[in-house]
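Before a colleague's protein record goes any further, I have to sign it off. Would you go through it and say whether the fold makes sense for this chain? Take the sequence as given and treat only the C-alpha cells as open to question. The record follows directly below this note.
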Amino acid sequence: MTADVQAARWSLRLRAWSRRHMAWIIIGTIVAALGVVTVAQSPSNPDTASLSAGNAAPDGAMAAAEILRRQGVTVTPSDSFAATTSLLAGKPRATVLVYDRNGYLDSAQLHTLQKSAGRLVVVAPGYRTLAGLSRQIRNAGVVPNGTSTLEAGCGQTDATVAGRISVKGALLYKGADVTCYRPSNNDGGVYAASADGRLVILGSTALLSNDLLQVEGNAALALRTLGPTQDLVWYLPGLSDVPNDGRPPTLDELAPPWVGFLGLWVAVVALLAVLWRGRRLGPLVFEPLPVVVKAVETAEGRARLYQDSRAVGQAADNLRAGTLTRLAKHFRLGPEAPANAVLEAVSRKVNHPARELRMVLLDHRPRTESELVHWAQRIETLEQEATAP
C-alpha cells in the first residue's frame, strides 16, 4: 500500500512539473529534432579545399575529376608529399597535378616530383613554387583588366584544340619553351610548358573550377592537359609537407627577399621624418627650485589649452565650478554646499528668482567661443552683484 501511494505522489509531481515547464520542453524537443536532421543531412567528411577533386563547391574541381574518371583516367587524390611519392613509385608515368596555393613545397620536393612524374601540371604557382620548378620560367604579371578571354595564339596541340579560354584574373608566365594565351603586347602567357611537355604551368584556377569549367574552352584545355596518361595524382600540399630541418626558421628566412631593401628605405624615410617634424629644443635653462608660478600665468596657460582644443564645454564647467565655490565661500555655506543652496542665497541677495539664476548659472551650455565669452561676462556680473556689500 505504501509503495502505491509513493508512486502516485511521484506521478502527480511529474505531471505538475511537466505542466509548469511545458513551453521549455516543446522548445527543447524542436531544437533536438532540428539538430538530428542537420547532422543526418550534412556529409560526414565535407571537402572544402579549393580546387580539390572531392569539393563540389564552385571553387572545387570535382566536375573535372569525375569527367576524367569517366574517360578512363584513374584519379587519386593526395594531400601529402609522402603519399604522392609513394604513389609515383608504382606509377612512374603518371601525371601529377599540384596546386600549392600557399607555397608549402621547397625546391627539393618540387624537383623530386618532376623526376618521379611522367608529367607535372602546376596550377597558378607563386614565386616560391615557380623558383623551385625552373630557372627559366618567370612570372610576367596578370592578365590586364578588361580581358576576359584569350585565343591560343601558339602551335601547341592541346591549346589549339581547346581554342578560346576564360582568363579573367589569371597569372602570366614567360621564359618557357611553349607559351600560349598571351595578351597583346605581352611576352607572357597563361599556359607555359617545357619543350618535352613534362612540365606544364596553368596560370588560372578557373580552368579547373566547377564554377567556370564549362566556360569557353576551359574544359577542353584542362582535360587534355590532365588526361594524356591513365593515372592522375591530384596533389594539394598541406602544412604537413613543410620541410623541417629540426630548428625553427629565423626571421630572415621567413621574410620575403624584398624586405631587406624596403626596410632600408623605411629607415631612411623615418630618419628624414624625424628631422623634418622633430621638435627643436633650445639650450637648457637652469632655474632655482622651487619655481613660483603666478596664478594668472597658470590660468592663462590652461585657457590657451582649452582654446586650442576648442573645449568650450570643459571651460564652461570650470568657470561654473569656480563661481559656485567662491559664492559658497562668500555666504559661508561651506565647500560641500549643494548648488541649489548657493542659488537660494544668491537669490535672496540680488532679489531675483532662483529659477532665473539657475537658467543662467547652471542650465546654460555655451556651444561656441563667442557664447562662452558672453556667458562668462553674465556670471561675472552676477557674482559681483551677489558679493557686493
About this structure: The CA atoms of residues 73 and 230 lie 5 Å apart. The chain has two domains: 62-241, 295-387. The chain has a mean pLDDT of 85. The first helix runs from residue 2 to 20.
